[in-house]
Specification:
This protein is an alpha/beta fold and about 250 residues long. It has eight helices and six strands. Strand 1, helix 2 and strand 2 form a beta-alpha-beta unit.
């Protein structure tokens, strides 16, 4: 190897790149290392930020009014409680009479016992408290179901009267473009009923009559009840399976 080759080799070793001549040394002195006075405690590293837990799921607003069909309401509440679906429960005065007449349930403690006893995810509201949380659109909810839905409640919802917490919560659900499922059971239906249902549907509600199907050949009344409850929970995307799906 000649002298020229040796010089080029030094340039490569110094910079890592092929240069025609050796790099001169830097005229600047290296920066001094920071001096730590003796006895200075060492600074611990910053704590590792904890992963934020996901926010709780929004609740489903569930209203019970005075139309016949209390078993639908009791079964639906039982399924929501057993599957730990956050639920805001609103029961009108006529809804309580309905529960008493059709199921022998006269107070909240009896309703809790009839629906499994675990209400850790259920929160009840007084229907006369129109200033409660379900009355505000700023509170996020999964939507609302009224089961059973009386013709009087359906008319109030269709025309936006908002005389009670149930009616106001339904009004909020519609204006916030959330899912509102109404489960009427009246029969026969007058022209007034049909027009109110049409108005509610045009406003965005889903009218789901309590009219169970028979193609699965039910053997018990409870199977008819489950048919309707299954359709309700399906509309809210809840992973609850009560009945066998139609397979053709």
């Amino acid at each position: 190897m000649g002298k020229g080759d040796a010089g080029r080799g030094k340039g490569k070793a110094r910079s890592g790149l092929a240069v025609p001549f050796p790099l001169p040394p830097s005229p600047f002195p290296p920066p001094p290392s920071p001096r730590v006075p003796p006895g200075t405690p060492s600074v611990p590293p910053p704590p590792t930020p904890r992963a934020r837990s996901p926010p709780p799921p929004p609740p489903l607003v569930f209203a019970i009014t005075g139309a016949s069909g209390a078993p639908y309401a009791v079964r639906l509440l039982e399924m929501l409680a057993n599957h730990h679906v956050a639920t805001w429960l609103l029961i009108s005065a006529h809804g309580w009479r309905l529960l008493s007449e059709e199921c022998g349930i006269k107070e909240e403690a009896a309703l809790k016992q009839a629906t499994g006893g675990d209400w850790s995810c259920v929160r009840s509201f007084n229907d006369s408290d129109r200033g409660a949380e379900p009355a505000s659109g700023s509170v996020r909810t999964l939507g609302m179901v009224v089961c059973p839905c009386s013709m009087g409640t359906l008319a109030a919802i269709a025309h936006g009267t908002s005389r009670s917490l149930i009616e106001r919560a339904a009004d909020v659900t519609l204006k916030e473009r959330r899912k509102l499922v109404l489960v009427p059971r009246e029969t026969p239906l007058s022209l007034v009923h049909l027009r109110n249902m049409t108005a509610a549907a045009e406003a965005g509600a889903i009218v789901l009559p309590a009219a169970p199907g028979f193609y699965q050949r039910p053997q018990k009344v409870s199977e008819l009840v489950d048919f309707i409850v299954q359709r309700i929970v399906d509309h809210f995307g809840l992973a609850i399976n009560l009945t066998k799906r139609w397979e053709g």
